[in-house]
Amino acid sequence: MAITRQVITSLQRDGTDALGTKTLAIKIADENIVSGSLLTVESNHFAVVKSRGAVLNVYETGQYALTTPDKPIIGSIVQGFFGGASPWVYEIIYINRSKLLVRNAGIATSAEMAEMAYQVDYYIHVDSKEAALDLITHLPFNGALIDTKEVADYAGPAIEQAINQVVQVTKMEEINEHINEIREAVKGHLADFLRVYGIMLNDLKVLIMPKDERMRELLSLQAIGLTPIEAVRYYLALRMAEKGLVSAPNAAAGVPFQIGGQPTGFYQLGDAAGIAR
Question: 172-194 b/e with 16+ CB inside 10 Å = b?
Fold first, then answer.
């Protein structure tokens, strides 16, 4: 084990931040960390020093000479009892104080049991040393780091529950009329959920739309004032126009298309029955 003085930092050799914009916390475990090692904490980080599972201290921005309870053991004692390695293992956990963007997406069902796709974008940050301790206490590390994807996985059920409370009792075409109600419900549920982990919720945006693309287009047509039947006709006409069919305007108007004075399609039910006779 090296017992020389060293500098511990979250900056990589090229000067970039190891946490970046997607990592909430990163853990550095190194047997070379000893009393007197210099701990550097950047302006957008907290640093937590742990030993054998116990928190020794939480540091804010600055550079600190670590004071750890180890007394370096050298020579034959180390070789005999610990195989050449120090019995003390220290962890430095850097916590990102910057605002990080998190995204959750999922499916909810409307009152008609139609599938609605939702997307929730929100910003989070860790505000204090106490919050940093809550984070590492309640949110487990999956390896050496905690990223925004892990936060999204944990927050997913809370967001889904808040959205379904409104969406499941609302007709599909009326959901956007309740978007502010849905947003406030999600914000309240999510803020309470994240607070347990020491995470503060900032801005939040909710977007809900029919999962089926055709249904989205039909609702868009109704939004400009068309009736449901007119919306279906115009949707059909748009698809026909994309294929280059000259009868697309007739589909939109709901009238027969004629070639040489003879109707060829889009009959009313009675007309078709009359020709059949």
Answer: bbebeeeeeebbebbbebbbebb
